[in-house]
Amino acid sequence: MEWTRGPAIGRGATATVHVATDIQSGELFAVKSAELSRSGFLRKEQSFLSKLSSSRIVRYLGFDVTTENDVPMYNLHMEYVPNGTLFDVIRGCGGSLDESLIKLYTLQILQGLDHLHEHGVAHCDVKSRNILIGEEGVKIADLGCSKLAGEVDMSEDSAVLKFSGTPIFMAPEVARGEKQGFEADIWALGCTVIEMATGRGPWPDMDDPVSALYRIGHSDHIPEFPRLFSEKGKDFLSKCLERNWRERWTVKELLGHPFLQVSESRSEQQEKAKTSSPISILDKDLWDSFEDSESHQEQEFEASSLNSAEERIKMLIRGTFSYVPNSPDWSCDEEDWFTVRSNSSEDSQDFTESESAHVEELSFIDDISTFDEELSFDNFVEIVSPFVSERSFVMELQNEMDIQIFLEWASNLSRGYMCERQKVLVEEFGGQ
């Protein structure tokens, strides 16, 4: 297949994700690329994805090896999911989701984990950044840390690190270096539910990975439950965040928990649910939705009151709630953390360089702070494209479009339209 590489839509410690276009059909797909010499995690992800088939897991399309700037590149082809990640949705809705929407997404994540676990695969890095939101709902992505069930136990005399994932989402047994299996995915799911409910990570008062891992592994603490959560929701979390992995509920048990129970007709409907996601600023349905909603007309501040291009673009990327008094505190969320990768022999170079993964996960604030007050359109597109949820629309802007007008429109998208779209989904297909 011949294809062309488009703008970057995601960057990590070892790979970059771009939108790509099939030259023959014109269809879009996602391509995750890494240098061939550092592609062990991508090749492992390919081996898992190629054996899985579930609407709750990102669809595998193939792989190839190309040479770009004289550097061999390994490319993993996957379906393009235009609605962004669950992390994007949480921020776009002001830092927390309605409990009815949390139920819907949690149910769908469990359906994906059920498929993984039935095939003997532990994901090992469940979190909102690794959950994509497609037209049919949730899709689990990023299997680079995943392991087969027979490979997850750690021997005490092993000289090789065998745990993977993001420290603040790790289960106690993983933090202690004892084992990492299906049970750890359930703990991480509980942490993700807290993230959906509060807009913060499970340990918001911890800003040091070593201290966090010690607390997780060697104390009696569990993450604090959301105060406004229902009793059924809190009971569900208690089954996920059981410190003793032997007593933690399985995927099958959680699927039967009262917190997730909906009528049969509702379950059938949600499988057919489609969200309306604009893929460009020229999408007529997008503009119609603004005309039908008052949310885009009632701004809590004027974008023109921001003092610099840097502040205006921060507003666009982080959503307007970042500038509203008493907005959610994101200073301790998992954006400041890094993903730990296993140190296998084929990826020794990967692990050495991934020790600074939290530095390589680009900070948008750092990127834009070098730009002057008068920001050119080309620079604007360059720095915005990798970060916005509805990324493809950026490339459709015309050079003559006034940046201020665009910023005002985009702030409405992030605060108004995106959140309302998710509410409509749950009201029609997942509500109680």
UniProtKB/TrEMBL annotation:
SUPFAM superfamilies in the record, alphabetically?
A: Protein kinase-like (PK-like)
Q: Which residues form the Protein kinase domain?
A: 3-260
Annotated GO molecular function terms are:
ATP binding; protein serine/threonine kinase activity
Q: Where does ATP bind?
A: K32
Q: Which UniProt keywords apply?
A: ATP-binding, Kinase, Nucleotide-binding, Serine/threonine-protein kinase, Transferase
GO BP field: signal transduction
Q: Which PROSITE patterns does the record associate with it? A: PROTEIN_KINASE_ATP, PROTEIN_KINASE_DOM, PROTEIN_KINASE_ST
- Could you tell me the superkingdom of the organism this chain comes from? Eukaryota
Concerning its family, UniProt says: Belongs to the protein kinase superfamily.
| Entry protein name | Protein kinase domain-containing protein
Question: What lineage is this protein's organism placed in?
Answer: Eukaryota, Viridiplantae, Streptophyta, Embryophyta, Tracheophyta
